Amino acid sequence: MNYFDRIRELTKDISVEMVDFSRLGDLSRTFTQASSYCMTEKKQDEWAEDLVTRAINKSSKNYVAVKYGKTADLIAGEEGFDAFFQELQNELDTIGKRPDLLIFNKSDFRANLGLDISHIPHEQITDYVKKAVAGVEVRSSAFLIDRYEKAKQMRTENLAKIAFEIKNKVLGEYREILDHPSRESYIEVLNGMTPRTLNRTDFKVPSWRSSESLIELSVLFKQLKIAIKGIQKRDYIPITLKVDDIKAVYKWIKTFNVPHFYFQVFFDKIYGISFERILHIISNPDNAGIIFSVESDTKKQNKTTIKISSKSGVEIADKIDEPNYESVCREMERGKLLFHVTFKGGTASLNVDNLTHILGIKGDF
Hints:
Distance between the termini: 25 Å
CATH class of the largest domain: Alpha Beta
Strand content: 15-25%
Strand order of the largest sheet: 1-2-3-5-6-9-12
Radius of gyration: 25 Å
Order of helices and strands: HHEHEHEHHHHEHEEHEEEEEEH
Structural class: alpha+beta
Number of domains: 2
Number of helices: 11
C-alpha cells in the first residue's frame, strides 16, 4: 500500500460532518483586507519558512529543501493581486494546495531549477515534484513555547490548589448542611475530586438562598466551578487547519503521492507532525477536546477550523536564535500607510534524529 492509499484509508474513518473528502471540487482560497496585523503575520510566516530551509540545507549532506509554495509581495487591493489570486485558485482546483517546501534527495535535485521553484507553473514540474521525499507546510507562532508551558503549569497548579482548599473548607465547615437528602449529592462530587479527576469533574452550581450559611455555601460552589472550568479549559498552542485546507492538502497528495508534513515554528523550538498523524488524531472521537478541537475561527473568516495541540508532534529543533526585527512602512492606495514588522536572520538547531524519524528518512541525513 503506497502513501496515498494509506491516507485515503484514514479519511474513511473521519466523520463527514467534520471533513467531507468526497467533495474536493469546491475548494477556495480566501484573503482578508490588508492590515498591520496580517502583514506582520505574513512576514513572520515567511521568516519561519526561510529559517527551516536554511536549517535543513546547512545540516544535511544528502537532502535539499526547496521553496515550492506560491507567494507574492502583494496586498489585497494592489495592482496585480487579483491576477495572482486567480492563478492560485486555478492551481488549487487542478492539483490542490502546494506545501511551502519540498525536500529532495540530492541525487534528484535539479540544480538548474535552483532552490526556488515557486514561480514555475505546476505542469512544467509535475514529474520533478513527484520525486520529492516530503512536502512541508511551515506555520509560525509568536510564542516561546517552553515559557508558555511553564506558565500554563503554574496556572493549573494554582487553580487546583484553590479547588482543593474550597473542597476541604466545604467538607470541614458545611458538612452538616450537605447531609440533607436534597444536597447530599454534592458530597459525592467533592469526595470524587482528586488530582486525576479534576479534568472530568462537573456539577451544577446551587442557588441556595434560604439561610446565610446556604448563601455562603452557594458562593463557595460557584468559586469551585470557576477554578475547575479554568483547569478544564483548552490551553494549548494549536496547529490551526482550515477544513478546506485539509481537503486541499489531500488533493495535492492524491496528485503527487508525496508524504506531507506540518512544521510549527516557535521562537524557541520547532515541532513537526505528519499529515498522516493528523488524520489519525482527528479520526478518534476520544481525542476531541483534549488533543484537538473543531471551531469557527473569527481570524479565518469564520471558516471551520481544526486545532491540534502542537505538542502532539515531535520536537525537531530544540533551540532557536531569535531574528532581528525591523519596522516597515508601506504606502497603500489613496495614501494610506500600513506599518508592520519584518523578521531577518536567526538560526535553528535541528534535532536530526527526530527530523529524520518523522520524515521516514533512513540512513545519513
